[in-house]
Fold this protein.
Amino acid sequence: MAKDKKLVQSQNCNGCGICVTVCPTNTKLAKAEDFDVNTAKLAISVSNGAAVIDNLACIACGICTRNCPVGSLAIVPV
């Protein structure tokens, strides 16, 4: 994760999962031969109809914020 910023989300999230598919951290993990979506430490995932951010895995690149159709994700300074 970037030390000076982090990813946050609002309550607008509709759980569409676009953020999960565009995340470079998730993409890199998915390319591993032993990848298991149920056990992988994804930077962002969808659970119970909303995005769940793992700020330890997230690199705060902002790609998901630019692809979120409802604008529920933002990069903020810490």
In short: The chain is about 20% helix and 25% strand. The first helix runs from residue 18 to 22. The helical segments are 18-22, 24-30, 63-67.
